[in-house]
Amino acid sequence: MGKALDGIRILDMTHVQSGPSCTQILAWFGADVIKVERPGTGDATRQQLRDLPDVDSLYFTMLNCNKRSITLNTKADKGKEIFTRLIEACDVMVENFAPGALDRMGFTWERVHGINPRMIYASIKGFGPGPYEDCKAYENVAQCMGGACSTTGFDNGPPLVSGAQIGDSGTGMHVVAGILAALYQREHTGRGQRVECAMQDAILNLCRVKLRDQQRLAHGPLKEYPQYPNGTFGEQVPRAGHASGGGQPGHVVKCAHRGAQSGTHTAHGPNDYAYVIIQPQSWAPLMKMIGRADLIDDPEWATPEARLTKLDDCFALIEGWTITKDKYQVMETLNALGVPCGPVLDMKELAEDDSLRVRGTVVEVEHPERGTFLTVGNPIKLSDSATDVKTSPLLGEHTDQILKEIVGYGDTEIEAARAEGAI
Ligand SMILES: CC(C)(COP(=O)(O)OP(=O)(O)OC[C@H]1O[C@@H](n2cnc3c(N)ncnc32)[C@H](O)[C@@H]1OP(=O)(O)O)[C@@H](O)C(=O)NCCC(=O)NCCS
């Protein structure tokens, strides 16, 4: 079966997570992704957080599947010559080095565009033009500066970063969209273009509802926030704990440990919780289920407006019932009533989830040096372009192959480049 991006060649100058997450998706859509790495060391994540000695880390293998690897010193003259040939032969170049790194190597956008006017050149940086444009950035720096951190956590606690990598992989996914749009536009114009996305901007995009709330705050308290009605609101959007960002109130409620009801377990696990949302139409069945049918028509409780001032009490009532069921039973019982809810699933449960494996979202991949490893496959499913997850490349595994196939080198030229330290 053909793939959506068959025939598209990506010059992948990315490292760590944000850039690699972008080019991995493009590889899964069928692009030929050529990862350029520094001879000797390669992407620093190959060595970071290793679980096995002398084997590429899971950090690396889980972000670089289906790519080819060439080692190339792009600061050496010979390396620059080869790099120029690769620019001529590729459709898209992606990089996420510290600001100015590629310019310092001599490959500015103007130069790249001059070498290959059809080239789409995408960059991820921490920040766009402005006071922070020269600063390096990692995930949590970006979460702090994009609004995620100030709006996450509890009112009486410090700002919190999310476990979801919204700065790294979140920005990577934004750049995928930019690259695909640029490839489509090139169909009409014949020209490549510059694609830029700052991690701060991508995170703010994901925190859109919090900027919405910042403006609502000027017109009164945010009634769905836990600070209402008894707490106070300042001039900025507060942290909302578990409160839902949508118009329907929701909260995390405690559940029984699985098996506890049959007496086999008594301990309460760290993730024995479920999230429950009270839609107006589900109040009646929910109250019936928990044995409080008396509250269905009681004017003090019957309407969303009446409940706004006592959401804590509402969820305490619900928790009185959920604590007698495990989180899967809560999911099953409440969904049968049309109540939106979800068990808090931990990574062990997700790794073992059959349905995620069946649909290729959790995949076991063969690696030549580590045996198999588990990864998150392509979450975007195309009906006419199936994803086939293959292992990440070893450092420089495809150097000779790429030099022969794309640059047109023979064995003698490859040996000479190797002797010079360029590859
Ligand atoms: C992630 C980040 C903080 C890492 O910083 P770092 O470890 O200092 O790495 P840099 O990006 O500065 O790159 C290191 C050097 O390697 C050089 N290098 C990279 N690949 C090379 C190659 N194939 N050949 C020769 N030199 C190479 C770079 O040119 C740079 O050299 P310079 O400082 O002399 O210009 C930084 O790259 C960054 O801010 N990136 C943008 C934001 C981002 O993506 N962050 C999230 C990462 S998940």
Characterization of the model:
- This protein has 17 helices and eleven strands.
- The strands form three sheets. The protein has a six-stranded parallel sheet with strand order 3-2-1-4-5-6, with helices on both faces. A three-stranded antiparallel sheet has the order 7-8-9, with helices on one face.
- Helix 1 crosses helix 7 and helix 7 packs across helix 8.
- Helix 2 links the parallel strand 2 and strand 3.
- The protein folds into two domains: 267 residues, Rossmann fold, CATH 3.40.50; 91 residues, formyl-coa transferase, domain 3.
- By secondary structure, the chain is α/β, with parallel strands linked by helices.
- The site of coenzyme A (COA) has 24 residues, from helix 1, strand 2, helix 4 and strand 5.
Quick rundown:
With 423 residues, this protein is of the alpha/beta class. It has 17 helices and eleven strands.
Terminal CA distance reads: 34 Å
**Poorly predicted ranges (pLDDT <50, ≥5 residues)?**
none
Integer average pLDDT? 96
Q: DSSP strand (E) fraction?
A: 5-15%
Shape: elongated
- Could you name the CATH topology of the largest domain? Rossmann fold
Number of strands: 11
Number of domains: 2
Helical content (DSSP H or I, runs of 4+):
25-40%
Find the structural class using helix and strand composition: alpha/beta
Listed once per kind, the bound small molecules are: coenzyme A
Proper CATH architecture of the largest domain: 3-Layer(aba) Sandwich
Q: Summarize the helix and strand pattern as letters.
A: EHEHEHEHHEHHEHHEEHHHHEHHEEHH
CATH superfamily of the largest domain: Crotonobetainyl-coa:carnitine coa-transferase, domain 1
